[in-house]
Design brief:
The protein has 13 helices and twelve strands. With 369 residues, the chain is of the alpha/beta class. The strands form three sheets. Strands 9-8-10-11-12 form a five-stranded parallel sheet. The two termini are 48 Å apart.
């Protein structure tokens, strides 16, 4: 691993922190904060070199994708080998219209209407809006200035002549209006956050949910399958914010028996009852609903779980599953379902619910034949 250069964009990095013998946290002017392993770094250069035969802009594309994830959550992104393939397959650099919107959104996220200008390194601007280089950033700045959205100090107001990319700019009144319009637009995301109990009892369910999400063209995110640093709930909240919708499974097991003092009707100090209602799932689904995200509810169809569904959610249309419905998680294509359209397993039930509400995701080859 290069001590001074970012492994992705090769620009100078601000710092390198050793987490374990093979895991590092780096902060790059362009890419943001990244968690990366030394083993992956060793193969990354070859992987990107091979990728350049398919996409010559792989470095700025990865920088923009990483910076976009970092700007949304302000938590380090855990960068792994499969991300390169995913970016190559499904991502593209934004066009000029997206870049102008990205610049307005980014400036607006850093300022208040009463504040003047924000100074940032040029690399930060380039990666955040999805530019290839400084010249393209200049072009985007000039468009927004000419259209009356940007204020740039120290330039000729009659004839704009920028000889180098400005690292200091602000929004006009018209620019703030455009920012509010863009900010209120629906978030375009392909990620699905899965809130569930991490236990051997739900391992087969996990496979069915992932099969349904992937078949529908979305990217499942299950927290215990990702590495992260810091507070786990900061990571969870950040990932829910980035998701298009969430799937929440409310399956439980019986609570542990705890000896209660019959005289005080109290329990021993510091008792932590295991199993029972999944408080984390309730929190995550409630937080998602507060953000205006749709929640698909699932639960095991046995009384232990069904009887513990809280009144606030029991009235929702929940998909109930049984163990035998999870043995097969293949989602058939439409051409295979002509004779028997009804779902043959739980994965197909979840898939059908996703498609009926959200349609196909960006990763989907719509299976209509």
């Amino acid at each position: 691993m290069n001590e001074n250069k970012c492994s992705i964009c090769l620009s100078e990095k601000e710092y390198l922190e050793v987490l374990t013998h093979d895991n590092y946290k780096i902060k790059c002017q362009r890419c943001g904060e990244i968690l990366i392993s030394g083993t992956f770094c060793a193969s990354l250069e070859r992987q990107m070199k091979d990728a350049e035969t398919t996409n010559r802009y792989i470095k700025p594309l990865l920088s923009h994708w990483l910076r976009k994830n970092y700007n949304k959550t302000h938590t380090p992104y855990n960068f792994i080998s499969s991300d390169v393939d995913k970016v190559l397959k499904y991502e593209k650099l934004p066009d000029v219209f997206e870049q102008t919107n990205n610049l307005i959104l980014y400036i607006g996220s850093l300022l208040f209407p009463s504040s003047d200008f924000k100074r940032l390194p040029v690399g930060d601007w380039i990666a955040s809006i999805g530019s290839i280089n400084e010249n393209e950033l200049l072009y985007i700045q000039k468009i927004l200035y000419d259209e009356g959205y940007l204020r740039i100090p120290g330039i000729n107001q009659k004839e704009l002549q920028i000889t180098s990319a400005s690292d200091k700019m602000g929004l006009t009144f018209k620019g703030w209006g455009k920012y509010n319009e863009l900010k209120s637009a629906p978030i375009i995301s392909n990620q699905v956050f899965v809130a569930m109990w991490f236990n051997d009892a739900t391992d087969v369910l996990r496979d069915s949910l992932k099969a349904a999400i992937i078949a529908a063209g979305y990217d499942p995110l299950i927290v215990d399958e990702r590495h992260f640093t810091g507070n786990i709930m900061d990571y969870v909240i950040g990932q829910i914010k980035q998701s298009k919708f969430i799937i929440a499974d409310f399956t439980v097991q019986p609570e542990e028996n705890v000896e209660i003092d019959k005289t005080t009707l109290d329990e021993p100090e510091n008792t932590r009852i295991k199993n029972g209602t999944r408080g984390g799932v309730y929190f995550e689904s409630g937080y998602a609903k507060g953000l205006g995200l749709k929640v698909i509810q699932t639960c095991k169809a046995h009384n232990i779980s069904k009887n513990r569904l809280h009144f606030d959610i029991v009235q929702e249309n929940t998909l109930f599953w049984k163990d035998h419905n999870l043995k097969e998680n293949k989602v058939r294509q439409h051409s295979e379902r002509i004779e028997k359209m009804s779902a043959q397993n739980f994965a197909e039930q979840v898939y059908d619910r996703i498609i009926s509400i959200f349609g196909h995701g960006n990763n989907s080859k719509k299976t209509s034949s």
